[in-house]
C-alpha cells in the first residue's frame, strides 16, 4: 500500500530539525522493509507566519508499506515523540510537532483538496481547526498539534520545484563549532554550474550561504535545478568536517510559489500599484505610498531594490511582491522583496524652439507672439518643442539582495512549471 507522509515542527534551538527527523525516519523505515518512493520533499510555507519554525519548512515522503494506516501511524508517531524527546528536546521549547498520513489513491478530488490546501499555506495563515477538517475530509490520520498544518500542506506540493542537497553532521560534532567551507571551491562550483544552481554564495559579502547555523544538525545545503549538479557540488565543495549522511530533497525553494495576492496581515501581497509619493526615512529605509493608500516598506538592506525605490515617484506603475506585516503606525505595511517597474510616468517638458537663423536658444514674447532669439534678436513664429524627460530609473525587476527561500532568483530558469 502506498502512503504519503507529512512531518513538521520537529526542530528546536537545542538541536534537531524536521529534515533531520526525515532522514532518521527514512533510515528507520528502510530497516523495517518500508520502501521510499521518489525524492523526499522539503516544503517551505508562508514566510510571514509569526510563530513559524526556523525557515518554516515541512517534509513530505511517499512510501510503500505492508501495513494498514493505523499501524503505520503508530509506528511513525512513536518515532516522532522519541525524536522530539531525545534529540530536539522540542517540548521544552514549546514546539508542537505534527504528523499526517494519507493513503494514496487515484481519486483526483483528494489530490485537489491537498493541492489547494498547500497553495493556501504558502501565502496565508491557516488555523489548526481548518487543517483537521481538511485532513478528515480526505480520511488522513493526524497526530500531534500545530505541526499538523504544515504536515498536511506539504502533501499537496508537486510543482514547480528545485532541489536541495542537505548534508548532516555527525551527532558527536553537534556541540562543536561547524566546519569551514573553502570559499574558492564553492565559488568555482557555483560559477561552473550557473544558471542551474542558486542561493549558494553571497557575492556581496563574499560569504558562503550554504552553511547552517547554531545547533542545526545540517552541515550545509546546496541548491539548484538539477540533481547531477548538486551531486557534483558535494564532491567539489571542500569543507573541513566529515558528514554523517546526505539527502536530496525536491523543494519549492526559488519557485515564487508564495507569489499570491493577499490583503490581510501575515498574508503575501502581490499586485500592481501606482506610486503616490516616496518617503525616505531615517537610516535609509523607503516607504512607498500608493495611490490606493497602501504602504510599502523597502529596507535599506535590500540593496538595489532600496536604491530603485528611492527613484520612484508619482504616477509610476509597479508590481510589488512582499509580506504584509502589522505596523503600529500604519496598521499594516508591506515589506517588499521584489518590485517590477512596469511604467514610468515620464513628464514631457516643453522647450522654446531654437532660432532658425543661428540655432541659439530663444525667449517667448508672450502668448501667440512668437519667440525672440537670445543671440541675434531674430523674431520668429514656431511651436514649442516637446522633450521627454529622462529618468535615472529604468523599467525592470529589482529584487532584495538577501536570500529568501521561496523567492525566485532573477536568473533562475525553472525546468518545470
Ligand atoms: Zn538667432
Automatic annotation (TrEMBL):
Enzyme class: ligase
Presence of the UniProt keyword Ligase in the record: yes
GO MF annotation, one: ligase activity, forming carbon-nitrogen bonds
GO biological process, one term: tRNA wobble cytosine modification
Entry-linked Pfam families: TiaS_FLD, TiaS_TCKD, Zn_ribbon_TiaS
Subcellular location: Cytoplasm
Record's catalysed reaction(s): cytidine(34) in tRNA(Ile2) + agmatine + ATP + H2O = 2-agmatinylcytidine(34) in tRNA(Ile2) + AMP + 2 phosphate + 2 H(+)
EC identifiers of the protein: 6.3.4.22
Residues in TiaS C-terminal zinc ribbon domain copies: 352-393
GO cellular component terms, A-Z: cytoplasm
Keywords, sorted A to Z: ATP-binding, Cytoplasm, Ligase, Nucleotide-binding, tRNA processing
Domain TiaS FLD residue range list: 146-258
HAMAP family: tRNA_Ile2_agm2C_synt
Function: ATP-dependent agmatine transferase that catalyzes the formation of 2-agmatinylcytidine (agm2C) at the wobble position (C34) of tRNA(Ile2), converting the codon specificity from AUG to AUA.
Protein family according to the UniProt entry: Belongs to the TiaS family.
Protein name (record): tRNA(Ile2) 2-agmatinylcytidine synthetase TiaS
Organism in which the protein naturally occurs: Candidatus Acidianus copahuensis
Lineage, highest ranks first: Archaea, Thermoproteota, Thermoprotei, Sulfolobales, Sulfolobaceae
Amino acid at each position: 500500500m502506498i502512503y504519503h507522509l507529512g512531518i513538521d515542527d520537529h526542530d528546536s534551538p537545542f538541536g534537531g530539525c524536521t529534515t533531520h527527523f526525515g532522514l532518521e525516519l527514512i533510515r528507520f523505515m528502510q530497516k523495517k522493509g518500508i520502501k521510499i518512493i521518489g525524492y523526499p520533499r522539503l516544503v517551505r510555507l508562508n514566510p510571514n507566519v509569526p510563530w513559524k519554525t526556523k525557515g518554516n519548512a515541512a517534509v513530505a515522503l511517499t512510501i510503500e508499506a505492508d501495513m494498514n494506516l493505523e499501524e503505520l501511524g503508530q509506528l511513525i508517531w512513536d518515532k516522532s515523540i522519541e525524536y522530539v524527546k531525545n534529540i530536539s528536546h522540542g517540548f521544552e521549547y514549546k514546539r508542537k510537532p505534527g504528523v499526517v498520513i494519507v493513503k494514496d489513491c487515484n481519486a483526483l478530488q483528494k489530490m485537489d483538496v491537498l493541492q489547494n490546501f498547500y497553495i493556501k499555506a504558502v501565502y496565508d495563515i491557516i488555523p489548526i481547526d481548518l487543517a483537521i477538517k481538511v485532513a478528515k475530509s480526505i480520511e488522513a490520520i493526524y497526530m500531534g498539534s500545530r505541526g499538523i498544518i504544515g504536515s498536511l500542506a506539504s502533501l499537496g506540493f508537486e510543482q514547480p520545484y528545485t532541489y536541495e542537497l542537505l548534508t548532516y553532521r555527525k551527532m558527536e560534532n553537534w556541540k562543536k563549532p561547524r566546519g569551514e567551507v573553502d570559499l574558492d571551491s564553492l565559488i568555482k562550483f557555483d560559477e561552473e554550474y550557473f544558471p542551474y544552481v542558486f542561493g549558494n554564495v553571497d557575492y556581496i559579502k563574499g560569504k558562503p550561504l550554504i552553511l547552517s547555523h547554531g545547533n542545526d544538525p545540517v552541515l550545509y545545503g546546496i541548491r539548484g535545478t538539477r540533481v547531477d549538479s548538486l551531486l557534483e557540488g558535494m564532491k567539489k565543495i571542500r569543507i573541513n568536517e566529515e558528514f554523517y549522511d546526505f539527502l536530496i530533497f525536491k523543494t519549492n525553494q526559488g519557485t515564487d510559489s508564495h507569489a499570491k495576492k493577499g490583503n490581510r496581515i501575515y498574508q503575501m501581497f502581490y499586485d500592481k500599484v501606482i506610486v503616490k509619493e516616496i518617503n525616505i526615512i531615517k537610516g535609509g529605509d523607503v516607504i512607498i505610498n500608493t495611490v490606493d493608500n497602501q504602504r510599502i516598506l523597502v529596507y535599506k538592506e535590500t540593496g538595489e531594490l532600496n536604491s530603485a525605490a528611492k527613484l520612484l515617484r508619482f504616477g509610476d506603475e509597479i508590481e510589488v511582491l512582499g509580506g504584509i506585516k502589522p505596523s503600529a503606525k500604519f496598521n499594516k505595511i508591506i515589506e517588499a522583496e521584489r518590485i517590477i517597474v512596469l511604467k514610468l510616468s515620464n513628464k514631457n517638458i516643453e522647450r522654446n524652439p531654437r532660432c532658425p537663423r543661428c540655432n541659439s536658444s530663444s525667449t517667448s514674447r508672450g502668448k501667440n507672439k512668437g519667440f525672440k532669439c537670445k543671440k541675434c534678436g531674430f523674431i520668429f513664429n514656431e511651436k514649442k518643442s516637446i522633450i521627454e524627460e529622462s529618468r535615472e530609473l529604468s523599467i525592470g525587476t529589482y529584487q532584495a539582495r538577501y536570500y529568501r527561500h521561496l523567492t525566485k532568483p532573477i536568473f533562475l530558469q525553472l525546468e518545470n512549471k
